[in-house]
Amino acid sequence: MTVSRLALSAFRCWRLLLPCTLLLLMPTPVLAWNAAGHRLVASIAWENLDARARSVAAGLLRDHPDYVRWRDRAGADESGRLAFIEASTWPDDIRSDNRFYSAGIDAPTPLLPGFPDMERHRDWHYVNRPLDGTPAIHAQRNRESVSGMLEQQLVALGKVLSALGAPRSTRVYALPWMIHLVGDAHQPLHTSIRLDAQGHWDRLGNGVMVINPFNPRKPSSTLHAYWDDLPGPPWLRGERLDAAGRALTAAYPAAPADPARSKPGLWIEESWHLARQSAYPPDDEFVPTLSAAFHENAKEIARRRIAEAGYRLADLLNELLGEP
Asked: Model-level pTM?
């Protein structure tokens, strides 16, 4: 082999290895659906709330310490709809907010008025379930590999929101988390982990790099980030967001009798099965290139899950906040 061919071969290997090398050097945040995905869930939910649930939700959000921030970003409206949509991303927004801290990583920050606590609660966003069906108690190699409190927190937040005798500040704090976490529970890679060829957990797909020829803005990313971005560009707002929401509800109408209507455990079970069946590309390459067939199927799953999350969030809030 000539020197030039050797150089070309080395370059190709490096091109494939570079994303993985960078991955090892970067933190691996666990997000679920990007901002567009969470706003779409909230937008669909708002359209399906009953009058009382809308009124209670709008009142709670107006009392939130960050309400003015949401209003400044999205604009004020009498109904509370825009604040409801903006609040959907708040639990992700605080990851880069210096007022808050991550337990075990940062020193605690001062408690500010209106907040029950200032912790970012990163482990509320997910629950790790091994895709091979291994019971978590046997699969756990360290305390960080099989963890996550998504299901427990959805149940706990529901109890807070439905408790009219609870301090108002705790109900105000709970609502943005509920709006957000219902969306998280419908993202397949927020409910699962898989062992790689070396026997390491893949951290909700954050340990898997893929080449994505269908996104010129992000031609390579983790598999988790690929799924997060499927709902659309993160800056989606306004009429474009509304049009996307209308398209989703037209394509995926609400089920007249949804067995998983307000049952977080069933949402997570559905997501786990989807992750097992459809979330990972074939393992025929070290850094797989996503095929058109895989991408189209993933888009269909993501769109359907966004719509289901919106309907189910509305059902849940109608039950917790709506007509007695």
From this structure: 0.87
Question: 21 vs 11, 13, 206, 234, 286, CA distance in Å?
Answer: 14, 12, 13, 26, 13
Distance CA 283, CA 279 (A): 12
Angle at which helices 264-278 and 168-185 pack, to 10 degrees?
Answer: 30
Q: Which among 149, 156, 268, 190 is positioned nearest to 29, based on CA atoms?
A: 190
Per-residue pLDDT 10s for the chain (324 aa) are: 444 444 434 434 444 444 444 443 334 455 668 999 999 999 999 999 999 999 999 999 999 999 999 999 988 788 899 999 999 999 999 999 999 999 999 999 999 999 999 999 999 999 988 987 665 444 444 444 458 999 999 999 999 999 988 999 999 999 999 999 999 999 999 998 887 777 778 888 888 999 999 998 899 999 999 999 999 999 999 999 999 999 999 999 998 888 888 899 999 999 999 999 999 998 767 789 999 999 999 999 999 999 999 999 999 999 999 766
DSSP 157-210: HHHHHH-TTS-HHHHHHHHHHHHHHHHHHTSGGGS-B-B-TTS-B-TTTTT-EE
126, exposed or middle or buried, with CB in 10 Å at 0-12, 13-18, 19+? buried
